[in-house]
Specification:
The complex is a heterodimer of chains A (about 250) and B (about 70). Chain A has about 250 residues and is α/β, with parallel strands linked by helices. Chain A contains twelve helices and eight strands. Chain A has a single domain (about 1-245), classed as Rossmann fold, CATH 3.40.50.300. Chain A has helices spanning about 15-25, 45, 55-60, 65-70, 100-110, 125-130, 145-160, 175-185, 200-205, 210-215, 220-230, 240-245; strands at about 1-5, 30-35, 70-75, 80-85, 115, 135-140, 165-170, 190-195. Chain A has an eight-stranded mixed sheet with strand order 3-4-2-5-1-6-7-8, with helices on both faces. In chain A, helix 7 (about 145-160) packs parallel to helix 8. Helix content of chain B is about 55%, strand content about 0%. Classes of the chains: A alpha/beta (about 250), B mainly alpha (about 70). Chains A and B meet through helix 5, helix 6, helix 7 and helix 11 of A and helix 1, helix 2 and helix 3 of B.
Chain lengths: ~250, ~70
Amino acid sequence: MIIAIASGKGGVGKTTISVNVAVLLSFLGRTVVVDGDVALPNVHVHLNLSPPASLPEVLKGEASLKEAIYELPFKVGKKETTLHILPSSGPLEKIDLDGFPEVVKELDKDYDFVIVDVAAGLSKYALLPIMASEKIYVVVNPEKASIEDGKRVISVASSIGKEVSGVIVNRYKGEKALAELAQKEISENLAGIVRESKLVKKAWEIGKPFVVAFPSSAVSKDVAKLAKNMAGMKTEIKKYGKLKYFLRLA
Amino acid sequence: MREDIEALMEDGEVPELKGGKVDEKKVISSVDLEEIVSSENSFVVRVVDVLIVLVAITVLLLLTGVL
């Protein structure tokens, strides 16, 4: 299953969601995260990796797919798992992405979940990964501007005959009305609500996904629900208000 | 926006689309993800959560002059 994690604009937490969801999905099946944002790659930074070979080298034919995939063991709570990464680090240069769909299709043969962290906005860097994906999720922040930006992904997807599978509201602090607006404007399927948490930044600083660094946190539980929805195990996502967020009752 | 996409399509070969079908059978494990993330220190976290809520309620009551 090829899953694209997209957004209308950068900075909404798309890579954080991609990496953390992928760690949890790896418990359900063989999972690989692909950094489809070749212009501004970030996945390797989140995971503290300095890969010698990555996606641009594969696309240029300078490295094989096997050489550019890295295996990372993780422990979430008491359970161990392995996540595979196809990063995109490399020198800033114009990269021809035409071969990208083929790379992703090749991965789909070997993996149960191929999570593609898509570049933000409307460009070839965003379009080709979206074209290659079976499911498209749009990440937004609970802000009107971010939801408006997220609508651009719908336009991109529909222009190539694809539908957005769901919306993910990230950095949620109880903005119930805005979560409802995201559902109305982007996708009726609210795949997940991931709350604002200081632990996200802390985990980023130590170079670990937050579901690994802080598995029992509320934000990790939010991602677990999201991962279940992505895997097709329907889980109810409750929209809660500011008081419940503040008192940590949700 | 539409023009940009069309120009892009003219640029190169359009990759074959898979049509958005999802093979649910590919999910090979029935592990409960919510259980995995709550398996470590969940008791400690719950106690801390309860304490935070109690402190918040006390502060609220003090501010409103009930206590």
